[in-house]
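--- STAGE predict ---
source: upstream dedup step, 1 unique chain passed
mode: sequence only
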Amino acid sequence: MSRIKTFNLPDLGEGLTEGEILAWLVKVGDTIELNQPIVEVETAKAAVEIPAKWAGQVQAIHHPEGTTVEVGTPIIAIDTDPGAGPLDVPSTTATPSADLPTPSAASLAAVEVAPAEGMIEPGLIGGAAPGGRTAVLVGYGPRTTAAKRRPRKGGVPAQAAAAPAPAAPAPQPVVAPVAAPARNGQAATATGGLVLAKPPVRKLAKDLGVDLGTVTGSGPLGSITREDVQRAVSGAVVVAEPLATTTAPSFGADREQRIPVKGVRKLTAENMSRSAFTAPHVTEFLTVDVTRAMKALDRLRGRREWRDVRVSPLLLVAKAVLLAVRRHPMVNSTWAGDEIVVKEYVNLGIAAATERGLIVPNVKDAGRLSLRELADALTDLVQTAKSGRTSPAAMSGGTLTITNVGVFGVDTGTPILPPGESAILAFGAVREMPWVHKGKVKVRQVTTLGLSFDHRIIDGELGSKFLRDVGDFLADPEAALLAWT
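--- STAGE serialize ---
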């Protein structure tokens, strides 16, 4: 049995077909253990670390960092018995195909690619699983069809890469400019270009026998004037002032930046385009006095059992949405063509802006959580998103979403629905504003809510009632809790 085993990029779940290699966590020659993380891969949903299927020594890395690889493509070769002696197999990191040496027949014979499904020990990644599926890290099994290889970034055809570079042209000698002869009665400059002079000036120079090619102009753009010709006759030397030159602005590729669309941004673009042109969006707005809600948060922070808990306005907004869903279940539903699927659970999505782009992880079954549990779940969700460790499973199955645009100082917006959801709430910044309170104008803390919904499922009345309930809770949380629970 061969010692060298080739590890293919596994299916990372949720039907993903490719991933970009962000970073190799090992290098050629390293000794690794079973299930040790060996590579970090970014998919369209998350960045994940992939563990090793075998213990041993890294013999070859087939793709460099930054390469997009199809699921099922070999990415690393591992010697599973490095203590058995040396191998006649070249160990090298991945380079463009034109630079790789052609392996010998003996070298190829020493390499063993993981067998096909059904021939691997059950329980291993890629091995047999119940129901005819294939065991993978998470989600669906790998595709059984041959993956289409996309060209490597910056790659060139092998013929082009192997062709010798053309020889650089030999430097040409620099020839000093000489005065060009006059043509058709017009003088030429020392560089061979025609001089700038008006017809009367040219006639004067001809009458006086002055070669305009020897005269330095002092007029606009270096043109020759009558005074310049007369000075040339009298022998006076005129020192021309240097012309003020301006560089024309450039609008070419040198002042443009091209950013590849991939990973999270590519998935977001596809989802937003599909949602915007599939679900008929309607957006309603509501401005709310949230002074009492902010005071309630201050009292909550002051309680001993809440001192170590992150308490933010988003917590109350999330609680308001969950309570409003109980009163209007149709808001938490999905359009399924010939039927509407109303869900009794709420996987509450929270839109998060990360360095990799916009992601929407969700709190599973958030309606069953207490306020303290919801606060802990939101804190964990946000911290995981900021660290770039959100898993694909955490971003799947959302039923209703909140986008907190207020953290950017924005009052509200018209958010686009995540695919498969029927409503999304935009929570704007909380600002001190003049507000009529108990018949008098006072400074109060005010925010604006924006609710976008799928008009195939939610009509204007339902959307308005749901938004009104969210606003009522934020206006007076204690009264709403007493009235609704």
